[in-house]
Amino acid sequence: MARVFFSVGDASGDLYAAAVARCLVKLRPDWRLEGIGGAHMHQAGIRLFALTPAFSAFGAWSAFRMGFSLWTLFQRLSRQLRTDPPDLFVPVDFGAFNRRLLLPMAQSGVRVFYFVPPSFWGVPPERLRRYAHPNIVFAPIYPWQREKLLQAGARVHEFGHPLVDILHPVRQLSPLQARQQLRLPLDRRLVGLFPGSRLTTVRENLPILLQVARRLHERDKALHFAIGLPPDWRLKWLAPLLTCDGADLPLSVHIGNSHLLLRACDGALLVAGTITLEAACLEVPAIALFWTGFLNRLQVHWLWWQGVKVTHLGPFALPNRLLGDIVMPEFIGWSVDVPRIAEVVWELLTDAAKTETMRQRLRQVWERLGELGACERVAKFLADWQ
User: Fold this and answer.
1) How far is CA 211 from the centre of its chain?
2) Whose C-alpha in 40, 45, 146, 383 is 20 to 30 A from the C-alpha of 186?
3) What is the CATH number of the domain that holds 303?
4) In this structure, what are the phi and psi dihedrals at residue 47, rounded to the nearest 5 degrees?
5) In degrees rounded to 5, what are phi and psi of residue 92?
6) Taking the model in full, what pTM does it have?
């Protein structure tokens, strides 16, 4: 009987790990699945030592604000893995945390399977050569991940994108069916607000989404707005933000049903991340934005000084990056402008020709993600890896 340890810190990673775990249980029902992660992993039968997705962070300053909790978790997990190493260590995304565990695990003889490795944006391949270890296999889901790792001499296996498996059932539903399941108004246009999954990101970006929503509501009082959040979220974290910026808006909050909510929407405002790819796969007209605090913006300047040209790495929204073109309008950092964003979203809601053109381009994203069965292929590799 083998023991597998998943290390996950993001909402998307939680979803991917859970999908792989369900397939792995079918192949190896006697294996023990453990890890750190979120609600989806728990529902898939993984024994969790810590819940992590809401407390991951983007940027050094945000990580510092969460720092003590994450540092404590890292120290505790490192000791546990050294004392009682698993047979397989499966980190999923969560790069700043997981990268520090790769070599210690591999050098101790543990097989390491890094599913969805970081994109390593702006990092030269020579800095990654230390990860070219015989016990480490990387499973990238994007071409830029694959290219960087191959240049570094790392072991790379490709299995496809897990979202194809995860979103396939949702794509079979009509927007009307999705609204009925969520008990949303059937006779009003619906705008989704997706502020991210990380606590710090939501705090920094939800006020902007609500300000845009207010401007849209001033134009059309019949609009309905819906906030989508991952299953690990708690309403008490959201209440102060809604009290400040969401008062009097026709607004509903949906926790744990983001894909269904996306399918129901006429348009959406998305904080840049995996949600942009999910929206593209579901053919939802949307814009992507990302705002971060002052000290994180200073970090961009520091990275530039270190030789990492972050601001030259766009486009940032995943559909745009996959297609090599700005199909989904994006507003990143200093380009975030509430009146301008509201105007672009209004055009998507009212200009049928523009909306249909965007949908046609977004269909190409789904086609580029590959075939069904990625999670099954990953599980089979893990089950057979000797």
Assistant:
1) 23
2) 40
3) 3.40.50.2000
4) -75, 120
5) -130, 110
6) 0.91
